[in-house]
## 1
Amino acid sequence: MATYLVLWPTGNLVQQAMDGTREEWDLQEAGRYGLYGAFITAPLLHTWLKVLTRLIPGSAFTQALAKGYVDQLVFAPVNISQFFVGMALLEGRPPEEALHECQQKLLPTWMISLSIWPILQTLNFNLVPEKNRVMAISCGSFLWLVFLSYMHHTRAQDLPQGLVSRQVHYDYKHGSSESSCVRLGPIDFSTSDTQQ
């Protein structure tokens, strides 16, 4: 909890420094990240890692790999959802708005998570003793928090196109082509006019 009390506001401040739209530091925002990281994320992560270790005992590479993927397929969507909803509520926004943000940003955030965290968690479960795993993962968590802070503070319509919409469409006459015809918004998947 003490580690996350330092890492989370620091990660948010790094994101604020990288954000060209900000004119001054928002220390209250950084404080909210510290409280949330220390009192919500750290205990939740500690408990989940204990549960996961009991579900899949052992630290051989195959067991560590299994834990890494179970972590991302089971825990990550819950963790990302509670981050978006929890941070919005801490900012004083209404629950409907918090849920709407979660609907817009959960899937693209989770897709990025799936490309990073299985590798880091496999190494964590394979090489790090159980008592040090939350501490070890906090190093990767710092960079991840900078990304989460960016996702949270960027409106869905202002996110890079590759994060919010992507579809590979296979046309049997002309081969495959990538288009931006599926919008990963709040359960609103519209298709392009080329799709049958």
## 2
Amino acid sequence: MKISIEKRTLRTDGTRSLRLVYDYGYTTNTQGGRQNKRKRSYETLDLYVHDKPKTPTQRQHNKEHMLLAETIKSKRLVEWQSQKHGFEDRTKRSASFIDYFQRQVDIKEQTTSTSNHSIWLSAR
């Protein structure tokens, strides 16, 4: 598997969004031959870079966001390698679902209507 960073199409404000591309390689047909179809998946990062930076501030912004995208890419690659070799992710095992759900309820309280928030409270 290969993970790469892709700059998406130009937006109206002159920025491009970044996403990770997970390339799993070519698929095989029933006879074992390679098809010309590649299997890929994508993860949007909600990071944006200026297409043609004009100021030092825009250039610095691009450097920071590209560095952050590279860091996320490296983390995903380490996670994939760990899973491939059978290592256990202790952070996922020790996480509490109740704590996670409470954080979601708190977010819903601030961002949605009271009726929606009450549904989340009832579910908790």
## 3
Amino acid sequence: MAIDFADPELIQDPYPALAELRERGPVLWHDADRMWLAASHATVRIVLRDRRFGRIWRDREPAERFAPFDLLHRNQMMEHEPPVHTRLRSLVASAFARGHVTRLGPAIEARAAELLATAGDEFDLLADFAEPLAVDVIAELLGVPRADRHVLRPWSAAVVRMYEPARSPETEEHALRASGEFADYMRALAADRRREPREDLMTHLVAVRDGGDRLGDDELVASAILLLNAGHEASVNALGGGWVALPRHPGQLARLRAADHLRA
């Protein structure tokens, strides 16, 4: 099947093309990108769980040019298999175990109510609600001051555009600049928490230990940026997709409303 992953129409609505892929078979060869595509849910699950298809990071070349981008990915758990992944995940999970998710409940509710209260009669669910809410939650988790949070999403958006199949030199330059600025900011935040610890995740990432092991400076920066990028992106998409799906499934919408009523 001829499918152009850079086609704006495909990006806007990929589902018809994905459905056609599934009809053609669970695994397909994509000539343009010289790669195999896993089309069905079952096949994707097999590929993701099979260690023979694992990820081992290789720096982009030339290494000198791509150094800011490579630094963020070389040191994050998502780009590695065990034992490196296991070590990084264990250290980050230990920092999370300090009750951070529970403590965020009131802050999430307050920020959601604030965003809804300031919205007009019509608003963009993703741009005006889901995205700022998700970024604020992860930023609150890490301990990023509210005055600085407006720079996080632009940095994240610029960095992830490096993954696009067809990208311009300008896109790469923006991604590299954002990678460097993002890393510098998180490094400064970590240094601040070493001097003045607080009850936030960055403080505990700085302090976490597993025996004599701890996160190195580059690992700490990469882990914090991964939490922000991956954490808010998934939340935005899940909230947007769920909002679209619920009216199409009235039974599930009724269950959600009933659960919210019981919780209240």
## 4
Amino acid sequence: MRAPARPRARILLPAALTAALLAGCSSHPDSQSHSPATATDSAGAVWKPKPGLAWQWQLDGEVEPTVDVPVYDIDGFENSKADVAALHRAGRKVICYVNVGAWENFRPDKDGFPRSVLGKNNGWAGERWLDIRRLSVLRPIMERRFDMCRDKGFDAVEPDLVEGYGNDTGFRLTAADQLRYNRMIADIAHERGLSVGLKNDLPQIPQLLADFDFAVDEECAQYDECTLLTPFIKAGKAVFHVEYKEPTSAFCAESRRLGLSSMQKKLELGVWRKPC
């Protein structure tokens, strides 16, 4: 049984930092493409999703392939090469969801993690934070996971929980530790020809923008943070965004103004979606 989807961990920004980040942000023209052709990139190149691409994010249940959007984000372990191929035949690009920040007791490679890298429970059943300072230990594990994504034919990776430094993990993680780990994760993806998205971690967008090809964000509208994502838009990189509690009437106008690819989802991340 799949662990439930999670709202993102919150990292509180100091007021001065928030102001500095906001000062460098600007708006983007309305853009929401629904054509599969717009999801493609030049042959042989790492996929570079552009702002405005509509998407489906389904991490629970059998993947429903008929949603008419150019991008799907699905679980890397629970979907097969055939599932990815079917989405490709329908003209979709496919993102591989992989948790890189926490150990999960329901994954087939769970025994490959030494106990020394397992921290506190992260609030979800069967999950424990990872000691991301242990790069030499975690790198081969994540390499094998990203090999799986590549071998199944995925175009990109969504690495989850890449902001442990802002949480009570059981380890004394720093922002510098997180930067090193996140850049390692991006390098692992690019070495395999996969594009990679920065999941949440808004405070480190200025430092990590060049390392990541797109962003995935949860609940920036609820916390009034969506403008912090505009560096990705200004760089021509998609921001795939969801809200769980906010109705579309509360955030879609601003999302369109900023150029975000936004929708409302239920927390379990099943088939249901309400796009902007």
